[in-house]
Amino acid sequence: MQSNINTSQPVYVAPANPAGRALASALTSQGYNVCGLADNLKHADGIINSHAQSKPDAMVIICSGPYTHGVAKGLIARGFSPNQLYTSVESESLATTQAPNSSPKGGTNLRSTIRPYKTPISEKFKSLRFTLFSFTIKVLRSMVPQRGYVYYAEQFFDTNMLLAYRQHRRQHPDEPWLIGRDIKQDLTMLDDDNHLLRLFSLQGLWHMVRAKKMVVDHEFTGNTFTLFRRFIPVIQLWHGLPYKALSGNIHYPDICDDAFISSSSWFNEHIFPTIFRARRYLDYGYPRNDVFSQLPQERDWINAEPLSTLTHIQNTTGSIIVYAPTYRDWGDNDYPLDLDKINEWCEKNKRSFVLKFHPFISRQFGDAMALPDSENVQALPSYPHLYLYPSGKNIYPWLADAETLITDYSSIAYDFLLTQKPIVYFQYDLDKYRKLRGHTLVSDDLFIAGELVFNTEQLLTVLFNIIGHPVSRPCATLLSTLKINEDLSSPQIIALVKSLNQK
């Protein structure tokens, strides 16, 4: 522990993720004056994003991990001095990690050793290498003619990206290129696509340098995307109408994308300009939502479980109900589902209950159910009416045939409005959610378009009423209020991608 650190000094902990929250709690218990969390991206009560928001003489303690240097770099870019930054290392030795001005309490517990942050030589070398890379790209970009279009992603190609790219290739086979960096997902579905490239291949870099436009559907924060964004007009598809707070890119004053796409002109007027920078906001819709106005045979089933499997389940155990909750980034993702009661209800009412979890939760749930690793939908052992849908696959072609959607705070609810079918909001942890997530971007009356339930018993009662009796469906009202586009999205987006760049 450094002797010049005083526990009365204001402290912020970074980043605002489960590990950071745990560290903040531990430091508070050790007597530190923890004032809140610091994060480069997240906005919520108790989280600061810049030095201007911090208290005088504050220090920032970064939770040690593989992301430490990236967090430090982002904090420095937001006005924090390198001298304000510290890192935390857990230790069991009370004698060496005792907080200043505190008394030993005896026993052996995990405590935090706080050390000044120092940029390692390897990071300095990376910075120099990237400077040279940036100069090379800038020179090449000014010399070579522009040709083709890039659909770009990092770690994972989401559904909107794949669908827009495939529509573009169907219309103009030689123009688009699907380019990814550090992609972790299984891409065997695209094995026969010779326009799928890795970024740091010569061919991938060449097409990035020459691209007329770049299409993305996330806000990537790495140096490479930030660099190319300076030179290539960006069309941001994003990935949904948000209920919970988002960081966007408004805190980067040098960013202004060519266009931002959503499915709602109301969101484009009232919400997205406050968190994203773009020259224009267009309500062309999301490519994944095209399935809601298409027959099963017309849908693009890329990265989805096949129609034959869906049909088999419908014929065997009944019409499908989809449960698709959002991910709890504070770490508590134990969904309180009474599987016995749900399976009994489904068997009695001839329904199939399809679970679509976040990848992290899907793995935990599969292990708890003793399911083998599989990229296919699986019936749960002892629960023949309950199915686990692969977390990395696109469920929207199935969602188009779902009788009901059950969700909580997820933007999938806005998409499902297009079906004008019932939505049930299973918000079993509403108080905790509001406390930990902070304010939402929209009020509940602009999000809830169905029944709100808090436990399995209420959920099953509402589901019974939905299938057994005519119910009021406020989906049409919210569709009208939010001015959600119901037309096919992909053709409009491809026309935009190919349009002349805006000055």
From TrEMBL:
GO CC annotation terms, alphabetical: plasma membrane
An annotated GO BP: teichoic acid biosynthetic process
UniProt region (Disordered), positions on chain: 91-113
Coiled-coil residue spans: none
One Pfam family here: Glyphos_transf
Chief location bin: membrane
GO molecular function ontology, one term from the record: CDP-glycerol glycerophosphotransferase activity
Membrane topology: Peripheral membrane protein
Locations listed in the record: Cell membrane
Taxonomic superkingdom: Bacteria
Record's keyword terms, sorted: Cell membrane, Membrane, Teichoic acid biosynthesis, Transferase
Biased composition (Polar residues): 91-112
Keyword Membrane appears in the UniProt entry: yes
Family stated for the protein in its record: Belongs to the CDP-glycerol glycerophosphotransferase family.
Database matches in PANTHER family: TEICHOIC ACID GLYCEROL-PHOSPHATE PRIMASE, TEICHOIC ACID GLYCEROL-PHOSPHATE TRANSFERASE
Official protein name in the record: Glycerol phosphotransferase
Species of provenance: Alteromonas naphthalenivorans
